[in-house]
Input
Amino acid sequence: MSETRKRIVTATGELFRSQGFNGTSLKQVTEHADAPTGSIYHFFPGGKEELGAAVLRESGAAYQQLFELIADEAGDIVDAMPAFFNGAADALEETDFIDICPIGNIAREVASTHEPLREASVSVFAGWTEAIQTRLAAAGLDAAEAEALANTIIAAIEGGFMLARARRSTTDLRATGTHMQQLVAAALA
Amino acid sequence: MSETRKRIVTATGELFRSQGFNGTSLKQVTEHADAPTGSIYHFFPGGKEELGAAVLRESGAAYQQLFELIADEAGDIVDAMPAFFNGAADALEETDFIDICPIGNIAREVASTHEPLREASVSVFAGWTEAIQTRLAAAGLDAAEAEALANTIIAAIEGGFMLARARRSTTDLRATGTHMQQLVAAALA
DNA sequence: GTCTATACCAAGATAGAC
DNA sequence: GTCTATCTTGGTATAGAC
Output
């Protein structure tokens, strides 16, 4: 895959995190990626919308891998909860509260206005749900309960990002991690 | 307070729900509010940013009243949880998944780019936290635990909105309501 | 306080040379 | 595949009559 294409996707993802979809201009993308306008339309003939969908899908997959990594390190899914939320909290602090998740940041913004982006976010969320659900099921939960709990965990972390970025504090996000740990432990008991 | 000002704020709130802050133009506001451009700048000399902050504060207060109402009807805070989440889910379905909460929709979008809007969202969230915290404390939780749990509940509902709007399904949002009910019940036990 | 017209700029997208 | 120049549209904001 082209280096230029990679630079464009990476730069767009970074801009999306702090400015959202509508707040990011293709001119900014060309500057940050050090790539000309023509290259954007060469790799993404559908323009901004197609580029945005690619950013969601590719960074969504990267976050899923990150979750798998943290979950593997934590050993079991109960201990993975605080590890996951605290890791996210650390990342937020280190980046001065720039959003660390471009998917969640974009999903609500465009859900009613850009159908291809909504669909891209749905497929990313489906992957995340499955990753968490699989581990919950492996720990003993039946499939339906595991899916529902996985979705609550995703909702909690995305909503937690919202509060943390607004307040510029990760205190609540960390506390939410322990609440999710309680919820998982109770479900498995 | 002027009728025109009210129409402007209401129309902007509605547009924010489906399109976000950057996705909503002042031209659309003039059309939906049936008010001229001059009136926007008369009531909000600071332009779009000042109008946006007013929308966040005023609709944030309205949602807080709605929560109080639902909590009063439910009787106790444990039963208020599913009532609250299911009510939100019903509203989402009735509006064809237009966002029912302009605050959460805007908060992440502008947290790093529009300081006055970030501050407005913080003060709205503070009111919500306090409303839930007060009821949790009245039910027997100590202040710190009540505050942390209140924030998790807010995170869960806002993240739940995100998933529900993206997926165009309220199944997960309702399930998250029962998870929050479990969490509250366990904390009070 | 309300309205119309408009200034001014930045947006997304395209054309066509290289 | 890359780049520059440019088209067209739409954005926010302002001016000034009423």
